Amino acid sequence: MQEHNVQETQERQEPEEVQVPLPKVGFVSLGCAKNQVNCEQMIWKTYEAGYEVALGAEGCDVAVVNTCGFLKEARDEAMGEIDKLVRQKQAGNLKKIIVTGCMAQWWHDQLAERCPEADGFVGVGSYQDIAKVIDEALEGQRPALFGDINAPVPETDRVVCTSDHWAWLRIAEGCDNRCAYCVIPFIRGKFRSRPEEAILQEAQDLVDAGMKELIVVAQDITRYGLDLYGQRTLAQLLPKLCAIEGVHWVRLHYLYPDEISDELIDVIANEPKIVKYLDIPIQHISDHVLKAMHRRGSGQEIRDLFRKLRQRIPGLVLRTSLIAGFPGETEEDFETLCEFLNEFRLERAGVFPYSPEPGSLAATYPDQVDEDVKRRRVELLTDLQMRIVDDYCANMVGKVIEVLCEGYDDETELYYGRSAADSPDIDGLVHFEGEEGGVRPGGFYRVKVTNFYDGELVGVRYDDDEEGAQ
Predict the structure, then answer these.
(1) Measured at the alpha carbon of residue 239, what is the angle toward residues 237 and 245, in degrees to the nearest 5?
(2) 297 Rama class: left (phi>0) / alpha (psi -120 to 50) / beta
(3) Is the pLDDT at 14 greater than 60, yes or no?
């Protein structure tokens, strides 16, 4: 699998002579990392078909919006983007609108009725057919392709759009963890691992394209290999990824707590390239709520795991996701969750109100929590977590950390980047002073933390001779 950036791919695809200009196709991607990878694959397939491609819809003939459908907020965002495109089309600035992704898959009938201006739909099992849908839409048809969501994951090239320095590395698709609040298995199908050789080849291609950080991602990376090889083989895959010359950081999203083996912990602890940052969504800690959620394991097992991880992986930063206001959650359950956060001081946590998703089991539960109660609980958890983050940042002052520089801010006159404790888009940045010309995006630098602000660290490059650059 070859990896490409937008500019070099456009140059590669540009014909020497163009008799008739082909329509220009703009892409808008919403949602999670897996969705982003799918969008990058669609961009490549569109290039491959000969179309000119852009990020964003402005100035384009065709707009492809890749939607998220996991939560109501995500669907509202998608509808807002589609409505903007509809207005552009009505004003004569856009010819066709194609809706793809999870919302197109799960909510197709409602979308087709709500958005008669949409000219085509592509489900999550048909990303590789995007060029065909664009062709048919331009011919005046209204195609809707929904391939088998349980089929093997197509090995499709992609145009990396996230960064010149880091990229998602998807190792599996779908999910088998039938949590009561979630419809992902119905949208993206059963869990399917990609073959190890395909993953390693893509990782090599990414590094050859200049990527320094690979973020291993799937709905549940700890299940990797079970369907293909009859056993969980993430612990065998990771050392092979780290052996690729040029990889500097390997980051792991998302690990299911009851599937983290001692062997996997040893690999994470002992492999220098694996950043000591683990995203382990637990959703709750109360046994009563976990059981209602259909989560495997107990609150005590989660506590024991986190203690073990802290003990065996020095300097570990833990991220999790928490749901407040799940049906049947009592004040006692909520207090238990707050006490857990206070005790374990997780450096990173996303807090979300429970959303009753149509089609999920939990949406049918009778003991739904009042919306005002949900909001109050989310606010309390968020305030608690902000205090924990401030304590973490205060403890980092005076320490020297490694930072991947991502750019320069003219307003603050500071460089900015991410440390091992910061995953793209969901965590903060590190802002630091550096000598002009001595710092470049994509380089790794040692930064001494001098302050923090609003959950983000501020510092100064520790050495002036670029000793910390990689």
Answers:
(1) 115
(2) left
(3) no
